[in-house]
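From the shared-data thread, chain only:
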Amino acid sequence: MIEDPRVLRYYEQGGELTRLREGRGRLEFWRTRDVLLRTLPPAPAKVLDVGGGTGVHAAWLAAAGYDVELIDPVPLHVEEAAVLPGVRARLGDARDLPVPEGAADAALLLGPLYHLHERADRVRALSEARRAVRPGGLVASACISRYAALHDSVRLGTLPREGRVEVEGRTLETGEIIAAREDGFRGYGHRPEEIAAEFTDAGLPLPDVYGLEGAFWLYGDVDDWLDDDGRRELLLDAARRLECEPSLLGVSGHLLAVTPADPCGD
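Structure, as tokens:
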């Protein structure tokens, strides 16, 4: 479960109910959905949505015919996800999943690695995902880019605040994220090259790593693009064209690692 009370307080504020449904967070949502639709086994495959929050992804997966079980350590999230049509939700920890071996066709970790600061805990969570899926099943994990916090501080104008340069410098060195936003977000940021080693140490094949937002999340008018159906599709297509470019991976706010590999560019 969540050991850091600051992380629990952050999620108990209820922000996860809207984070990916409003504003520029929708770009992360649409791009995550885009990659998963291309890599998941077809419905009605069973999907474990580990750390699935309030069910923003579980909702569309269930609507698409997937058999979805959401597991999350925050009681508020489980309560909110449990009312979604076709979604089963219960409390649980990504490092000790309450499911039998090989119980699912796919396991999604679209949030847990954000808050596991110790590498051993992240590898343990990935190992549990591997155990929970059938042989050859899909494991997908989202990570925050190590460089996202500094980008965000410049975008939001918070970098000039007292102490922020030192905080952002520490994030670049250690991965510990302490956001300047009033919501108090704390997390862990991956370097793109870290991710493959964590997967392989968990006994998983090398993943494909996708840059979800590219640099587009930093654009001032990204909300306008997302508000317009036609422009949103153009934006998603642009991000898709750049998603596997190694030189741009770290610019994305979020990365999505997926295995077994469906090689980028094929």
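The CA atoms of residues 91 and 250 lie 32 Å apart.
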